[in-house]
Amino acid sequence: MRKFLVTLTIATSILLAAGNSQARDNKLMVPIADLMAKGQTQDKLDPEIRLLFAGQSYPEPTRKYGNFVTNKKTNAFNKSDSEACDWVMLSALIALQDRARSEGGNAVVNIESYYKKVVMASATEYECHAGNVMAGVALRGDIVKLP
Question: Where in the sequence is the domain holding 112, given as residue range(s)?
Fold first, then answer.
């Protein structure tokens, strides 16, 4: 009986400790240039569909298709925050390019971070949220046809 009570006490302590631990959700500001300089990024992005971030200049569009949002998540287990954020950002950019292609556009302009519908506009950084098992990036941008 005593052994049972000791085991029960240990099990209860473990469950209480697990219940009190909080999930990690670190907000990271990651340089866009670091991602764009990587070979895997260049191999996966379509060079025919331009990606221009908030504040970057571009010629007057010949057609505007609208503002679109992508919200991507990736498994962050056994990855550094940097690796997980790069992977999920690349996925979000590919999704914007796919949408531009399907709409008939050749560029996505004014790209800004839009995590939980909060705007963070930057030409040099994107916002990524990294946790223990998931990382996420949300972007929005205007799909256009540039001359």
Answer: 24-145
CA distance 19 to 3: 24
Separation in Å, CA 57 to CA 7, 45, 51:
66, 20, 11
Helix (H) / strand (E) element for 109: namely strand 107-113
pTM: 0.83
Q: What is the dihedral of CA 72, 77, 79, 80, to 10 degrees?
A: 80
User: What pLDDT is attached to residue 19?
Assistant: 43
How many folded domains does the chain comprise? 1
- Collect all residues with Cβ–Cβ distance below 8 Å to 107 and sequence separation of at least 6: 49, 50, 51, 52, 58, 61, 100, 143, 144, 145, 146
Round to whole Å and give the CA distance between 110 and 125. 13
Number of other CB atoms surrounding residue 47 within 10 Å: 8
